[in-house]
Amino acid sequence: MLGPVILAASRSDKMRRFVSAAPGTKQVVDRFIAGETVDQVVPIIEDAAGKGLEVTLDVVGEDITTPEQAADARDAYLELIERLKDLGLGTKAEMSVKLSMFGQALDGGHELALANVRPVVEAAAAIGTTVTLDAEDHTTLDSMFAIHEELRKDYPQTGCVIQAYLFRTEEDARRLAAAGSRVRIVKGAYKEPASVAYQDKAEIDKAYVRILRILMEGDGYPMIGSHDPRLIAIAQELGRKAGRKLDEYEFQMLYGIRSEEHLRLAAEGHRMRVYTAYGTDWYGYFMRRLAEKPANLLFFGRSILTKG
């Protein structure tokens, strides 16, 4: 399987240099990354709003090695929120954050990440929107969930992400499927060992459906992160069986992938949110997109061959 190999490459400085220098890289990166600056991403938010779509914005970057870099990441989100406020787009765009960007892996990282993310959550709430804490590899999750629980004391709309391929996730879903919670379910995009995660795609899909049923039958607000037509249809059926209205859950898909499906679901009356990443430190995010779907890797390979 190529996926684990690509995920391993996402941590390699040598591969980072090779991919960054490849002639066809920019063409493919532009497919998944909306831009490098706030100014470049604002028109995309406005265009999505005009089409009945919502967005969640991710300022990409995970390799944080100093508290100063973590503070810079915090400030990048605060700048984004200020622009959304000025443009009146607060209700159309939320933020997704990786706590690794806020210093989670540094010494005292749990407290540092909480201190950095709190003003972002506070600023988002002030303009009528919210923040979702992205899930990363399994070693970070206890810290992420603890920070999520702490933030929800003052900002109960703060969301979090769970990953279907982890054995622990069904229990996490039962705990999180409570009134007022916002939970995004994804398959998972990190290289995880067989001791903690399903390795077989069919088993991951089965787990996804089991977890999705828990969320739909619970009292929270499920956010279905998937491009899989079969899982989307199952989510719609589970929502119907649970008696949910179309605005009592939402679909989320990545910017640049299945854009026509974004519009189709919105036209049917579903809430449809586009996960939109931007920034200059795109490598880790980009490599996980390649790992998730073989077609993405083929597209990248063809681009290198035709541009080389």
From TrEMBL:
<feature type="binding site">
    <location>
        <position position="201"/>
    </location>
    <ligand>
        <name>FAD</name>
    </ligand>
</feature>
<keyword id="KW-0274">FAD</keyword>
<keyword id="KW-0560">Oxidoreductase</keyword>
<dbReference type="InterPro" id="IPR008219">
    <property type="entry name" value="PRODH_bac_arc"/>
</dbReference>
<feature type="domain" description="Proline dehydrogenase">
    <location>
        <begin position="45"/>
        <end position="298"/>
    </location>
</feature>
<keyword id="KW-0285">Flavoprotein</keyword>
<dbReference type="InterPro" id="IPR002872">
    <property type="entry name" value="Proline_DH_dom"/>
</dbReference>
<keyword id="KW-0547">Nucleotide-binding</keyword>
<feature type="binding site">
    <location>
        <position position="98"/>
    </location>
    <ligand>
        <name>substrate</name>
    </ligand>
</feature>
<feature type="binding site">
    <location>
        <position position="288"/>
    </location>
    <ligand>
        <name>substrate</name>
    </ligand>
</feature>
<dbReference type="InterPro" id="IPR029041">
    <property type="entry name" value="FAD-linked_oxidoreductase-like"/>
</dbReference>
<feature type="binding site">
    <location>
        <begin position="226"/>
        <end position="227"/>
    </location>
    <ligand>
        <name>FAD</name>
    </ligand>
</feature>
<keyword id="KW-0642">Proline metabolism</keyword>
<comment type="pathway">
    <text>Amino-acid degradation; L-proline degradation into L-glutamate; L-glutamate from L-proline: step 1/2.</text>
</comment>
<feature type="binding site">
    <location>
        <position position="163"/>
    </location>
    <ligand>
        <name>FAD</name>
    </ligand>
</feature>
<dbReference type="GO" id="GO:0000166">
    <property type="term" value="F:nucleotide binding"/>
</dbReference>
<feature type="binding site">
    <location>
        <position position="289"/>
    </location>
    <ligand>
        <name>substrate</name>
    </ligand>
</feature>
<dbReference type="InterPro" id="IPR015659">
    <property type="entry name" value="Proline_oxidase"/>
</dbReference>
<dbReference type="GO" id="GO:0010133">
    <property type="term" value="P:L-proline catabolic process to L-glutamate"/>
</dbReference>
<dbReference type="Pfam" id="PF01619">
    <property type="entry name" value="Pro_dh"/>
</dbReference>
<dbReference type="GO" id="GO:0004657">
    <property type="term" value="F:proline dehydrogenase activity"/>
</dbReference>
<feature type="binding site">
    <location>
        <begin position="187"/>
        <end position="189"/>
    </location>
    <ligand>
        <name>FAD</name>
    </ligand>
</feature>
<protein>
    <recommendedName>
        <fullName>proline dehydrogenase</fullName>
        <ecNumber>1.5.5.2</ecNumber>
    </recommendedName>
</protein>
